[in-house]
Specification:
The complex is a heterotetramer of chains A (244), B (290), C (288) and D (377). Chain A has nine helices and eleven strands. Chain A has 244 residues and is of the alpha/beta class. In chain A, a hairpin with a 2-residue loop joins strand 1 and strand 2. In chain A, helix 4 crosses helix 5. The longest helix of chain A is centred in the C-terminal third of the chain and has 16 residues. The termini of chain A are far apart. Chain B has a two-stranded antiparallel ribbon. In chain B, helix 3 packs antiparallel against helix 8. By secondary structure, chain C is an all-alpha fold. A two-stranded antiparallel ribbon of chain C has the order 1-4. A two-stranded antiparallel sheet of chain C has the order 2-3. In chain C, a hairpin with a 2-residue loop joins strand 2 and strand 3. By secondary structure, chain D is of the alpha/beta class. Chain D is 45% helix and 18% strand. In chain D, strand 9, helix 9 and strand 10 form a beta-alpha-beta unit. In chain D, helix 8 packs parallel to helix 9 and helix 11 packs across helix 12. Chains in contact: A-C, B-C, B-D, C-D. At the C-D interface, helix 1, helix 8, strand 4, helix 10 and helix 11 of C face helix 1, strand 2, helix 3, helix 4 and helix 6 of D.
């Protein structure tokens, strides 16, 4: 069963095709990695799937039922999708706890006005924050955290959504080894909870260790796909990375 | 007696004054990327300097005009040097800079009315009958003709400077991306101060012309800056050519609009147009969609 | 002492305006220069209802509240599409437009002649005509506004507003319809400003369009910025200082012809110094 | 934002409020005890675009004060006038009114120049039983604003009626184009003028303009197109200078008639030849005495001598005369004010009616001729 599929997906900026007629299938409950040199359209794909960029052509199919030619950002949670950002988008001048609570409480305006966060919200927040080791620091403002802690907070925020499909855009970029261990541990736990993970990463070691399936993009087109061991051995993939 | 030519003349006159303001406003906005209220006060400073030199001290008119323009430019440079350069170093958001420019605007306006009382002054004494010209039934005075020609000249020369000279290329680089231009070695702070100076000179000139055509009082700045901003948004904010086009469009819509609706709704037209453009075409006519 | 009571009444009115603007500016991060117009709509709605329809002050206030809420909903719908500089310019433009309507719709608002003879509120025999009683009434409304504002800010809705201020794009992805949130806070803030308008109309007993123009919005903005963005008590502090201190200048013996202009100059200088050295205001937490 | 900083700031604020309270109660002299200077308040626009008129009336009141004090003051007490800026804005005027009434405890207040100021201060003066005498507010609503509220200027009703009749009967014009500023004075007179003019003439076009607008070309072009045989142009000095110049630039030949704000030398000089032939009505007042003009020149306010400055001067003189007779009790002053009859001031001859308005208002017509003002009728 494929939780997300793209059918001839197109996204262009003034004539330059960032995503060019891309058709991929993401297996449910699997960790699928998307790799490719810089500017090959990885982040554009994620932004298009999460509704931040308009779809210029083709379709996105969710759970093989919803055929979408247009996605608005605030409706993606209803499809069970959540994400993290390559360049961190935290709510800077708010406490760590608030950064989590804001994704837990009611979204509808009228109900939100008359609701304050309940104990069960706090319980989820505590569980998620302890998982990334930030529960003791919950009173601090996000802006005062170190780079690694901010990456962890982004992951925690995504976890708090308890979504079905996680789009992780370079979650390991610039982290120390022990933080990498924490995050890869979390990704593995997601897999055990049969969640679908789409991972964008450059570190080939992590790709081999984590991913069940790999897609290789080059300037918006699908270059290759398959098991990590097969795909990474292919000549044209290595050339794409080294750049002809 | 057909009044259309007269309406066209009125629109061209209003348009050319707005054009001068819009040129200055756009130049400053292009480099600093925030809505700056200071130019409003600079227009008044330009007008009052000429009034002081020409009417009070009786100096030669051309000298006073040039002095007026330079003084307005200097105050623009000063405001950048003392306040906005510091704000840029703090990486202050453009809303903070907007509020700061509002503070400078109020302060300058108050200082002018302390020095010159808040009386309305007409700069050109009109004892001698103003020579009016007639074209196709539309009458306008030599001052208005001069304004029209100067605004065209200012536009052309500015366009040439931006296109041809190295200074012009640096200005465009800073307008596109300040960080990048820092990296490639442009001393952006000094350049932005220069841009402030030129933009303020243009707006000072518009204040002087308003002084000749109509007259000056300390509170003339607010309306000027709002008209300038409206013209720039319509034409395409930050785009010098767009500002010029937007100014004349605003002049025509305002004057032709009055035909249909009573005069007291005139300011409503300008701001109605502003709101419409902000919603449907915020990037204005000239800029491509952001 | 009556003069101090008079100033405290103005403090209450501008406190309510500061609180309501802080909701939009300090918590949602939208620099709105149209609050003077909401203040005016509230004042005119109450004044017209009291003089033409002869309604009691409190009934006129509630109807005025609803009316201003509807108008600020419409304005919110227009403005919430804009962002950054365009939003600021849009609010200035709208403020001008609303004042022009107040001036020219003369058969409703009597145009520049303004509306005079608005009498003081009375409530089943309890009349608030003398200033101390009116001060009590204004302070009650100020306290009510403060509680409403605190309720909104401490709710999940309030937390979402702060998130909009911080990173609107990211928040969308987590299921928030930003447009409806901005619309809601605009309506609430417009309705609260109408309370201040009603109090102002009934206290000064005469209103004309000129006192609700862009300069009034700039003054309210200064109250919020001085007091502190994102701090309700900051807005009260800002209102207190910006209402009381200029009056002090009346006693500092400036020669009368330049007294008024010096006040303007000091007030402009205050804005500049604040922005340079303390953009988050005296006891605010959020940097604009 | 450490706690201590917040506490320090709140402490500072509380200290300020206490200081203000103390200074207000200390400074606020107790009600007039018969010694020290007699305090009289003045409210008028000293900033904003009508500040020109405000500053001029202030100078005239200062001239009157100096003359009174030079002649030994009133009952051997010097007269002190406290000037407050009303900014033509209800809130500022209410602030000024409250301060004059409760802190300075003035015996009477000269002013509200703009009707918006007078209407805002009226309830405050009425409640404190302090007579408020306006020198320029013509809004008809002021007539019944309270029995402590007076004015030494005729309400719009008189001027609108006189102008309509003069244009219909004397100038024999029937098609009028109205150009009026969007302020309480202009709109007030325009409405009354239209009621009276409707009897035999028609208003072919009516164009309003913002009080501080300076580009009236579009409005003038529209009026010109409506081909009126007379133009009724209401405006304060600034807009009038600009309007008259633009009327000439646009080649408008039809005769122009204005309101009493045109009785201002600045317009004659500012508009120059453009104003030639333009007529306006003004309350019949003899020319200002040379002594007044010289005194005003000393105060470098001579160039802007206007119709209202004479009235401000007269009000202070009338008050001094009344206080001389009945002392400083404001209710007695109020009663005396109602008895003012045929008082020959420099600005007008004043007779007050039971409502505190001028009972009579006879107008004369003047016209601009080569930067001078000439009497027509």
């Amino acid at each position: 069963m494929f939780s997300i599929q793209t059918k001839n997906l197109k996204k262009h900026f003034d004539g330059v095709y960032a995503v060019d007629d891309l058709s991929i299938k993401i297996e449910t409950g699997q960790i699928t990695s998307i790799i490719g040199p810089n500017g090959s359209g990885k982040t554009t794909l994620i932004n298009t799937l999460s509704g931040l960029l308009e779809i210029d052509g083709g379709l996105v199919v969710i759970e093989e039922s919803e055929k979408l030619s247009k996605i608005t950002p605030h409706e993606i949670p209803s499809f069970g999708i959540t994400r993290t950002f390559q360049n961190i988008h935290l709510f800077e001048q708010m406490t760590i706890l608030d950064n989590i609570l804001v994704v837990l409480t009611d979204r509808q305006v009228f109900r939100a006005i008359f609701e304050t966060h309940q104990t069960f919200h706090l319980k989820i927040a505590e569980e998620v924050l302890t998982r990334v080791g930030l529960w003791e620091k919950r009173g601090q403002l996000a802006v005062n955290l170190s780079y690694g802690q901010r990456k962890l907070l982004e992951i925690a925020r995504a976890l708090a959504m308890d979504a079905k499909i996680y789009l992780l855009d370079e979650p390991f970029a610039g982290l120390f080894p022990e933080m990498v261990k924490i995050i890869s541990g979390i990704i593995k736990e997601l897999k055990q909870e049969s969640k679908t993970v789409i991972l964008i990463e450059h570190d080939m070691g992590l790709i081999r260790e984590l991913s069940d399936y790999v897609f290789v993009l080059d300037s918006g087109k699908l270059l290759a796909e398959g098991k990590p061991s097969e795909v990474l051995a292919k000549r044209e993939v290595i050339e794409a990375y080294l750049g002809e | 007696m057909n009044i259309i030519p007269q309406i066209v003349a009125n629109s061209l006159i209003a348009g050319s004054i707005y054009a001068l303001i819009a040129l200055g406003f756009n130049l400053v906005y292009g480099a600093t990327r925030f809505v700056n209220m200071v130019p409003g006060a600079l227009a008044a400073i330009g007008g009052y300097t000429v009034f002081f030199l020409f009417n009070r001290l009786g100096l030669n008119i051309y000298f006073s005009v040039i002095a007026g323009v330079v003084v307005a430019g200097f105050f623009g440079y000063l405001s950048d040097r003392l306040v906005f350069r510091k704000l840029r170093s703090h990486k202050a958001s453009n809303l903070v800079s907007f509020v700061a420019s509002l503070g400078i605007f109020t302060m300058l306006q108050a200082l002018i009315s302390i020095l010159f009382t808040s009386q309305f002054q007409s700069v050109l004494s009109v004892t001698e009958n103003p020579k009016t010209y007639q074209i196709l039934g539309a009458t306008f005075t030599w001052v208005q003709g001069l304004i029209f020609i100067t605004s065209i000249a200012a536009f052309v020369s500015l366009a040439l400077i931006l296109k041809k000279t190295s200074f012009g290329k640096a200005v465009r680089a800073v307008s596109d991306d300040e960080e990048v231009s820092k990296i490639i070695g442009i001393n952006t702070n000094r350049l932005i101060s220069w841009i402030f100076f030129i933009g303020s000179c243009l707006i000072g000139l518009s204040g002087i012309f308003i002084g000749f055509d109509i007259g000056i009082n300390p509170t003339m700045g607010l309306f000027i800056i709002l008209e300038g901003a409206t013209a720039s948004i319509i034409g395409g904010i930050g785009n010098v050519y767009g500002g010029f086009l937007g100014a004349f469009l605003l002049g025509f819509v305002e004057n032709f609009g009055i035909l249909k609706i009573p005069g007291e709704w005139k300011p409503a037209i300008a701001f109605g147009l502003l709101i419409l453009f902000l919603i449907f075409k915020p990037e204005g006519i000239m800029n491509k969609k952001k | 002492m009556a003069y101090l009571i008079h100033l405290l009444i103005l403090f209450a009115i501008y406190g309510i305006l500061g609180l309501s603007l802080n909701l939009v500016m300090g918590y949602t991060g939208l620099l709105s220069v149209t609050h003077g117009a909401f203040f005016g709509i509230g004042a005119y709605a109450t004044a017209i209802l009291m003089t033409h329809a002869g309604l009691n002050f409190f009934v006129a206030l509630i109807v005025g509240l609803v009316l201003s809420g509807v108008v600020s909903f419409i304005i919110g719908a227009i403005l919430s599409r804009l962002s950054g500089d365009y939003f600021v310019l849009g609010t200035v433009g709208l403020n001008y437009l609303i004042v022009t309507v107040l001036i020219n719709w003369s058969d409703l608002t009597r145009g520049p002649l303004g509306i005079a003879g608005i009498h003081k509120p009375h409530f089943f025999g309890l009349s608030f005509s003398d200033t101390p009683a009116f001060l009590v009434l204004s302070l009650i409304f100020l306290a009510l506004t403060f509680l409403v504002a605190r309720f909104v800010v401490n709710s999940s809705f309030g937390r979402a507003l702060k998130a909009i201020r911080e990173d609107q794009k990211a928040l969308q992805v987590f299921g928030y319809n930003i447009f409806s949130y901005k619309l809601a806070i605009f309506t609430i803030s417009g309705a609260l400003a109408a309370i201040a308008g009603a109090l102002f109309a009934s206290y000064i007993t005469f209103i004309n369009p000129a006192s609700f123009d862009v300069m009034q919005s700039v003054f309210i903005l200064a109250v919020v910025v001085l007091g502190g963005l994102g701090s309700l008590r900051g807005s009260l502090l800002g209102a207190l200082l910006l209402v009381i201190i200029p009056e002090l200048l009346r006693f500092v013996g400036f020669p009368s012809e330049i007294a008024a202009q010096t006040r303007q100059a000091i007030y402009g200088l205050l804005l500049v110094v604040l922005m340079l050295y303390r953009p988050q205001g005296l006891i605010g937490e959020y940097k604009l | 934002m450490s706690k201590t900083v917040k506490i320090v700031i709140w402490l500072v604020v509380i200290v300020i409020v206490i200081a203000i309270g103390a200074s207000l109660s200390k400074k606020g002299s107790n009600p007039d005890t018969g010694t020290g200077p007699i305090k009289i308040g003045f409210i008028g626009p000293l900033t904003g675009d009508t500040a020109g008129i405000g500053e001029n009336v202030r100078a005239a009141v200062e001239v009157a004060r100096d003359e009174i004090n030079a002649a030994g003051g009133v009952n051997k007490r010097q007269v002190e006038v406290i000037f407050e800026d009303g900014q033509c804005d209800p809130k500022a005027a209410a602030n000024a009114g409250n301060k004059l009434v409760s802190v300075d405890k003035v015996v009477a207040i000269i002013g509200g120049l703009c009707s918006s100021e007078t209407l805002a201060v009226a309830p405050i003066a009425e409640q404190a039983k302090v007579p408020l005498i306006s020198d320029a507010s013509t809004n008809p609503k002021i007539t019944d604003a309270g029995d402590y509220i007076f004015r030494f200027v005729p309400s719009d009703l008189f001027q609108g009626k006189f102008d309509a009749e003069y244009i219909m009967n004397t100038m024999k014009k029937s098609k009028v184009g109205i150009l009026y500023c969007l302020s309480d004075w202009c709109t007030g007179i325009k409405d009354v003028f239209k009621q009276n003019f409707a009897s035999s003439g028609t208003v072919v076009d009516e164009e309003g303009y913002q009080q501080d607008a300076r580009d009236l070309r579009s409005q003038i072009t529209k009026i010109k197109a409506a081909k009126p045989d007379v133009i009724y142009f209401l405006g304060y000095s600034e807009a009038s200078i600009v309007g008259l110049k633009q009327l000439q630039e646009l080649g408008v030949k039809t005769p122009i008639f204005g309101g009493d704000a045109w009785d201002d030398v600045k317009i004659a000089e500012g508009a120059g030849k453009a104003a030639n032939g333009a007529m306006f009505s003004v309350t019949a007042s003899s020319k200002y005495p040379q002594s007044f003009i010289d005194a005003m020149t000393v105060k470098k306010a001579d160039k802007e001598l206007n119709n209202y400055s004479g009235r401000g001067y007269d009000i202070l003189k009338v008050l001094a005369d009344i206080i001389g007779r009945v002392g400083v009790d404001s209710t007695k002053i109020k009663d005396e004010l109602y008895k003012v009859k045929d008082y020959q001031g420099i600005g007008d001859t004043y007779t007050l009616d039971a409502k505190g308005d001028l009972a009579t208002a006879n107008y004369s017509v003047k016209k601009f001729q080569d930067s001078k003002i000439v009497l027509v009728q």
